[in-house]
Structures are given as C-alpha cells and as structure tokens.
Amino acid sequence: MRGTSRASLAAVEERFEPVLASAGSAASDLGEQLFAVVDALDSSGSLRRTLGDPSVDGEAKARLAGQLLGAADPRVVAVAQDAVRQRWSADADLAEALERLGFMAVLARAEHEGALAQVEAELFRLTRALIGQREVNRTLYDSAIPGDARAGLVDAILAGRASEVTAIVARRAASASRGRRYLATLGHVGDLIAERRKREVATITTASELTSAQQDRLAQILRQAYGREIQLNVILDPHVLGGLRIQVGAQVVDSTVLSRLADARRRLAG
C-alpha cells in the first residue's frame, strides 16, 4: 500500500480495535463476515471500483455499503462503511484492508482467550510441515480447484490437531488465496500476530538445526539491529546447502550457499 492507503488503514484499524476488544470470543465471527465482504469485492470489479473510487462521495459509498450489507452484523457494517469513506490509492487496497481487518478480528478472539501464542506456534508448525511439499502447495494455490476443496485439504492436514482460530486462518488462506501463495498468506498472518504481540518475527531458513546458544546469539544480534524483541522461527530446508536466510518483515538477508552460487552464475552470464 502507498501512503494514502496506509494512512486510511491505520485510521480504520484504530477505530476498530475497541470494537474487537469488546467482542471477545465473538470477534472471529466478525472476521469471517469481513472475509465475505472481501469475497464480494473480489468477485465484482465494478463494485470494487465504485467503493474504492476517491472521486465518489464517501457518504454515498457508505450508504451503498450499508444497503449491500444489511443482513450483516452491525459492527461489520460500521467498519465497512468507515473503510469506504476513506481514500485509497488503488481500489484493490480497499479489499486488502478489509481482509487485514478480518484476520485481525479472528486473531482478536485468540488474544481474548489467551491463545495467541498457541495460534502463532500452530501456524509456524503448519508452515514448517509444508516446506518442500510442492504438490500440496501447488494444490492449495490452484485457482482451478474450488476453494472449498482446498479448505478441505487443509482440514485433512490439520486433522483436528489445531485450535479453532488456527483452523479458521488456515482454511481462509486456502479457500481465498487472492493471488498469494499459501505459505505467503500464513506468513502474513504471522506478521499480524507479531504486531499484536509487539514483536518482530525473524524467519530463519537453514539446512541444519541451530543450537539454543546459536539461536540466542542470533536473536540478540537482531534485537540490537531492530531495537525490539525478536521471535525466531527456524525452518529446516534441505535445499539450503549452507549459511542462513534471514527474513524480517520485507527485509531479507540471504547468505546461503545457493544464493552465492546463483549470484556467481549471474556474474558469469553478464
């Protein structure tokens, strides 16, 4: 998102947070209704363009949203109307913002129930289990396969071994990829959890296990670099021949052997 959209999202989020706090365990219901709003926008380009058009009067757009969402929870109607009143750099940013609010609502339930750390751990275990599973990941991203079928595959993978909030997130990531790879969506939600827990997440990809001392040292280095607490998520990937790939948010530090070989090939080709 560009500056205007980021400012609009921040304003809507700030007003939505007290609503989520008071909703308690019902916050996830608000999230799932917001996902339905996102699906409606994704399925209708004309609706998305109208509601995201900065040249259309904000109150007129809010009335239209209210008419379309008449049967929804009033709290969902209110936040959707708040969102369409804002200015967005691109109409796609409106749907992206509402999806983020939906995930925030689902995570607010886990936070209310004291299970946010559990959801974070479960999503990370799911991510780690899917590393290298190319056919499964391809299926979870394949738009030619119905969303319900992709969500059903997630259910089979989880096999009842995850919390309800984790299952909601994992199913949503599969049923509506919105152009993102499945693991990318799980990573996005992981970043939202880190924000709610006031921490950064560093994803470390390595070919071999890191000792506790190595992890502590790496966390200390990153904490000093970023000035805040760092949660390390370590992923073992046999395709990494050596070194580490460290990703914190959008920043990537890649010192793996494969990265250096690829760089050497580019230099030779150039």
> What's the number of helices?
13
How would you describe the shape? globular
- Integer-rounded radius of gyration: 20 Å
Helix content: 55-70%
Major sheet: size, sense and barrel closure? 4 strands, mixed
Write out the strand line-up for the largest beta sheet, numbering strands in chain order: 2-1-3-4
Number of strands: 4
What are the low-pLDDT stretches, counting only 5+ consecutive residues below 50? Answer: none
Helix-strand makeup class: alpha+beta
User: What is the overall pLDDT average?
Assistant: 89
Residue share in β-strands: 5-15%
Oligomer: single chain
**How many separate structural domains?**
3
Write a short abstract of this structure.
Belongs to the ATPase delta chain family. By secondary structure, this protein is of the alpha+beta class.
Structure write-up:
- With 270 residues, the chain is of the alpha+beta class.
- The protein folds into three domains: 1-113; 114-193, no CATH class; 200-269, no CATH class.
- It has helices at 3-23, 27-43, 45-52, 58-68, 74-85, 91-112, 116-130, 134-141, 147-158, 164-175, 182-196, 212-226, 257-269; strands at 200-206, 230-236, 245-248, 251-254.
- Helix 3 (45-52) packs across helix 6 and helix 9 packs antiparallel against helix 10.
- The radius of gyration is 20 Å and the shape is globular.
- The two termini are 34 Å apart.
